Amino acid sequence: MDFELANALGRIVELKDRSTGAHTWRVTMYAQAMAEAARVETPRLMNFMLAAVLHDLGKIDVPDAILRKPGRLDPDEFRRMQEHTTAGHDRLLRMGVTEPIILEVVRSHHERIDGTGYPDGLAGEQIPLAARWFSVIDGFDAMTSLRSYHDGRGDSAAERAILDLEVHAGSWYEPEAVTVFRDLYESGRLDSTLEHLNDPVAHQTLTGPLSETSAELAREALLRSNPPGVESADIEHLLELATRSPDRDD
Ligand SMILES: [Fe+2]
């Protein structure tokens, strides 16, 4: 997977799912920190970071009405939301991506050790290792990010999130990954990502308009990987948003 393309796709997912406010970039920085702490060799580290950038790619295929719904999702809507895992995985296959770590994280980052996750209900070591590690990162960020439906910011939110990871170590999360993540948090290694990238003004400064070249790469990849029978109008709209200058409003 090409870095420029991954960056463009990550930006487009962020535009599609605005509630997450730089979620993609925070989890990518956490992924780098975790992989370094685990002394993962460079090619795997790079692929783990790319997997983080792309983990929610399939949200492009979830209707806005579901993705941005303020209240609780009904069972059908929830099922549709869960399909972002397989939708992203299938898109990557159609794009020609072959790196196992990327495909595994995108498909299996919502699986749980006790088998209660989705989309495949895998348990324990059936869940690919990288996905088990990434789900700790994703879980932490869900509990500490700026989201429209709760205020999860600040040190106390982070402390609570670490406790929650520990409570669910062995049931939802891989215990070793929880320990590595907690140690990183306690060492202060995650502070700048946690603070800076959760600041709504600061993170906007990271995301100027996408270049025409990047947008073209993304357009080609997305159109080529569109699920059969799906309209491409939404993709054109997202690309238009991604390439316009920030002073314009939609
Ligand atoms: Fe996800």
What features would you describe in this structure?
There is one protein chain. The protein has one domain: Orthogonal Bundle (Hypothetical protein af1432), CATH 1.10.3210. The two termini are 31 Å apart. The chain is 62% helix and 2% strand. α1 (3-16) crosses α14, α2 packs across α8 and α8 (129-144) packs antiparallel against α9 (154-167). A hairpin with a 2-residue loop joins β1 (146-147) and β2 (150-151). The longest helix has 16 residues, at 129-144. Strands 1-2 form a two-stranded antiparallel sheet. It is mainly alpha-helical and 250 residues long. Bound molecules: fe (ii) ion. Residues 55-56, 84, 109-110 line the site of fe (ii) ion.
Which helices and strands, and how do they pair?
Layout: H1 3-16, H2 23-37, H3 42-54, H4 64-67, H5 75-82, H6 84-95, H7 100-108, H8 129-144, E1 146-147, E2 150-151, H9 154-167, H10 175-187, H11 191-196, H12 200-204, H13 212-225, H14 233-243
Antiparallel strand pairs: 1-2
The protein binds fe (ii) ion.
The site of fe (ii) ion has 5 residues, from loops.
